[in-house]
Design a protein that fits this description.
heterodimer; A: 385 residues; alpha/beta; Peroxisomal Thiolase, Chain A, domain 1; 9-stranded mixed beta sheet; two-stranded antiparallel ribbon; 13 helices; B: 165 residues; mainly beta; 5-stranded antiparallel beta sheet; 3-stranded antiparallel beta sheet; 8 strands; globular
Chain lengths: 385, 165
């Protein structure tokens, strides 16, 4: 029987296109210092450190963990690094939680980060495959045909993506840490933005950000003695599948469905849409909100877009998604998954400030990465399981 | 280099040179391309045909792909993207249609360029055929095909393959 684990501290940086004022180490330390202050502990109280970031080629710095060990005051402590592409922030938090649940460490610090301004992710994600046809154009080029497949299969009207984008950009204005603060978007203006990777418009794409998120996790024994609000981890789940295989369902990958089903089963959730109060979902391209609503078992197949159109996923709706503004408003890739997990924790801790969903008791953090290849989720609550 | 805030910043591009060993499965595929043929491989376990047989292994069954299977040359567009974004290292003039093409007889689509029609006329289910470069330009690459173009045949009704890989 696994031990219980609670989030007792959350800290993130101000995300921006270029945090020229800090190095990678300074960026990471900014989030860490805020998480430690939030938990009211010092680095000396931490038993182990688990970090994650996207592939090194995205920021052009190989093995940053080597020099981050200094910045994290990791002398004499175990440091682990997790790699699962864009989902890494989620899977890193899960690995950290598992160290606590396994009874190995009582207090674990976990960090996800990315300093995109140090490199060129669009270039790194467009490297020609040897002996192939060089038509591939970044992450948008990869996901755009999948979005087209969803639109075709579901019959969704063309404005749904822009609706999601306007919602997330509007929500982000309530989040002081969000990269984009753009309060003036309307659906009409959003639909006038150019098609970049048709059918994906400019408004429907995430920014390129520098940023970091850090969480402090504690065992039940320590958390019970710890003053302050907590987010109890009720369940974690991860699933993977190959990026390309014959007959693969790309719009709703089986690994994503399995990951969610596993999470609901472990947490005893029978009806996710009714029992979950708020979701921080990994939506780097706006159309993925309706697609993941279906993939994760919230909405019936081909109905996710209706939930968007009906306002169900707005902050005042019955299932708010990304009150923080989500990946569409801040995308430090390696941190983005942990931002989802940490923002979910902030909601049930009642620490989300202006973007707080009143009375949120159960929240889900979700991340995916690679070619929709890795899925990571957790469910956190204001009360113990 | 910028010194706006008193700090000097340098942009330093880095490069990597590498050798790529094709291995036996990809070799028959690449040799096929040098002869103007699309040679795929069949998984001995699930019997599905991979083109190109990139890793020589069925990713789902983890079995080594077996016999050669000639596929195409015609195929069907399963989904596509119209690329309008300029990026570093780009070789094709914008805008262009990057389509997932399921070659006849194959069970997984590959990505290639669609030309000889307007981008807005491209559709899921459209039948296409390859336009090969002059033989003198051929090498072991899918770049031997200049692009794919519509055949004019009736569209194929796509089921679950639409949006599939």
């Amino acid at each position: 029987m696994a031990e219980l684990c609670a989030v007792v501290g959350v800290g993130q940086t101000k995300h921006a296109a270029c945090r020229a004022d800090v190095s990678i180490a300074g960026l990471v330390r900014e989030a860490v210092d805020r998480a430690l202050a939030d938990a009211n502990i010092t680095i000396a109280d931490v038993d182990a450190i688990v970090i994650g970031k996207a592939p090194d080629s995205l920021e052009g710095v190989a093995m940053p963990e080597l020099w981050l060990a200094d910045a994290l005051a990791a002398h004499g402590k175990p440091v682990f690094r997790v790699h699962t592409a864009g989902s890494v922030g989620g899977s890193t938090a899960i690995v950290a939680a598992q160290h606590v649940m396994a009874g190995i460490h009582g207090t674990v610090l976990t960090i996800g980060f990315e300093k995109q301004s140090d490199g060129n992710a669009m270039w790194a994600l467009s490297v020609p495959i040897p002996f192939g046809m060089p038509v591939h154009a970044g992450a948008g080029g990869y996901f755009s045909p999948i979005v087209r497949g969803y639109i075709g299969r579901s019959g969704a009207p063309k404005h749904i993506g822009a609706m999601v984008a306007v919602k997330d950009r509007t929500n982000a204005c309530k989040n002081p840490y969000a990269h984009l603060h753009e309060p003036d978007w309307t659906l009409e203006k959003a639909l006038e933005t150019p098609m970049l990777w048709d059918p994906i418009r400019f408004i429907e794409t995430c920014p390129s950000s520098d940023g970091a998120m850090a969480l402090v996790l504690m065992s039940e024994e320590r958390a019970d003695k710890h003053a302050g609000r907590k987010a109890w981890v009720h369940a974690t789940a991860m699933r993977s599948e190959p990026t390309a295989f014959a007959g693969r369902e790309q719009v709703s990958p089986v690994a994503g469905e399995m990951c969610a089903a596993d999470l609901w089963r472990k947490a005893g959730i029978k009806n996710p849409a009714e029992e979950i109060d708020v979701v921080e979902m990994y939506v780097p391209f706006a159309w993925f909100e309706p697609m993941w609503l279906e993939n994760l078992g919230f909405a019936p197949r081909n109905e996710g877009w209706r939930w968007v159109e009906d306002g169900i996923t707005e902050m005042g709706g019955s299932l708010p998604i990304n009150p923080s503004g989500g990946v569409l408003s801040s995308n430090p890739i390696g941190a983005s998954g942990m931002l989802r997990f940490g923002e979910a924790a902030m909601q049930v801790m009642g620490k989300a400030g202006e973007h707080q969903i009143d009375g949120a008791k159960k929240a889900v953090g979700h991340a995916y990465g690679g070619g929709s290849q890795f899925f990571a989720m957790w469910l956190v609550s204001s009360t113990k399981p | 280099m910028s010194e706006a805030d008193g700090l000097v910043r340098l942009r330093q591009p880095i490069g990597v040179t590498y050798n790529w060993s094709a291995g036996p499965n990809a070799t028959s595929h690449l040799a096929g391309l040098m002869n103007g043929k699309f040679v795929g491989k069949r998984c001995p376990s699930c019997a599905l045909v991979y083109f190109p047989p990139r890793n020589g292994v069925c990713p789902k069954c983890a079995k080594i792909l077996a016999g050669d299977v000639e596929v195409g040359p015609k195929g069907t567009i399963t989904t596509f993207c119209i690329v309008n974004v300029p990026f570093l290292g780009q070789k094709i003039k914008l805008p262009y249609v990057a389509a997932q093409i399921l070659l006849d007889g194959a069970d997984i689509s590959m990505q290639h360029l669609i030309q000889e029609c307007e981008a807005e006329d491209v559709r899921i289910g459209m039948r296409v055929e390859p336009v090969w470069k002059d033989k003198s330009e051929w090498g072991p690459s899918l770049e031997n095909i200049q692009h794919f173009r519509p055949t004019g045949e009736p569209d194929r009704v796509m089921g679950s393959e639409s949006g599939a890989s």
